[in-house]
Amino acid sequence: MAQSLVCADTVSRVSSVLNRNTRQFGKKHLFDQDEETCWNSDQGPSQWVILEFPRRVRVSQLQIQFQGGFSSRRGCLEGSQRSEALGKIVDFYPEDNNSIQTFPVPAAEVDQLKVTFEDPADFFGRVVIYHLRVLGEKA
């Protein structure tokens, strides 16, 4: 059964934070399960989240909850094992709404994931995410 692969030892990085206000809009809010908090990127043509797992994982699903109007029309999931360069796993196409969206991921064993949000719905290129879940199994 798939479980959340993000844990306290998972290192995360993001492309930007709105007005550099990490307290209110920082990356920690992607994983805190709080309906009131979110990661809000700054402006740009694309935004990304990188996750470095403490051990190899087998990813099977990606779940994302955007704020409607601040989603992306296209996304790309890339992964690697420690010494390798990132390689494309799958493209996905989110809808512009507030629902939790689930995207299947072809079997991929990785130590690192990069989720890139391309073609933002917002004119300025901002992306707002309330929940980001990576599901699968520990390898």
TrEMBL record:
SUPFAM superfamilies associated with the record: Galactose-binding domain-like
Coiled coil: none
Keywords on record: Nucleus, Receptor
Chief subcellular location: nucleus
GO CC annotations on file: nucleus
Compartments, as annotated in UniProt: Nucleus
InterPro entries named in the record: Galactose-bd-like_sf
Ranges annotated as spanning the membrane: none
Complex and partners: Interacts with NR2C2/TR4.
Purpose of the protein: May act as a repressor of NR2C2-mediated transactivation by suppressing the binding between NR2C2/TR4 and the TR4-response element in target genes.
Family, as annotated: Belongs to the NR2C2AP family.
Protein's UniProt name: Nuclear receptor 2C2-associated protein
